[in-house]
Amino acid sequence: MRGRAPLSLDDCRCPVCLEIFMEPVTLPCKHTFCKSCFLETVNKATLCCPMCRKRVSTWARLNSRNNTLVNQELWKQIQTCFPLQCQRRLTGQEAEVDQAGTGTHTGRDIP
């Protein structure tokens, strides 16, 4: 990342599911969501950003058709910076929230 601070776990948290981004989708309004969260939101409502309500219908149709919804650069950075959290999400395991609320894994699975 040129000229940017390193990603923090909080920078990579989806505002819909509150988990680390999985296949992040960055909308033209600059809000980012997990691909599945974005698709679920637009399937249940209008094609608007869940945060600012800006219409993204044309953008979403074009990027869905071109298979370019996922912000590949951000997705690669997240996988590089947070491999354990990504693996846990992919396998359906929940991260245990530490006292600071950062969602770091302490080595114990939550029952």
From TrEMBL:
Primary residence: nucleus
Alphabetical UniProt keywords: DNA damage, Metal-binding, Nucleus, Transferase, Ubl conjugation pathway, Zinc, Zinc-finger
SMART domains: RING
Record's catalysed reaction(s): S-ubiquitinyl-[E2 ubiquitin-conjugating enzyme]-L-cysteine + [acceptor protein]-L-lysine = [E2 ubiquitin-conjugating enzyme]-L-cysteine + N(6)-ubiquitinyl-[acceptor protein]-L-lysine
Keyword NAD attached: no
One annotated GO biological process: chromatin organization
Pfam families linked: zf-C3HC4
Residue ranges occupied by any RING-type domain in the UniProt entry: 14-53
Listed GO MF terms: nucleosome binding; ubiquitin protein ligase activity; zinc ion binding
Organism domain of life: Eukaryota
Any one cellular-component term (Gene Ontology): nucleus
Iron is among the record's keywords: no
Enzyme nomenclature, EC number: 2.3.2.27
Cellular location(s): Nucleus
Enzyme class: transferase
PANTHER family: E3 UBIQUITIN-PROTEIN LIGASE RNF168, RING-TYPE DOMAIN-CONTAINING PROTEIN
Protein name (database record): RING-type E3 ubiquitin transferase
Lineage: Eukaryota, Metazoa, Chordata, Craniata, Vertebrata
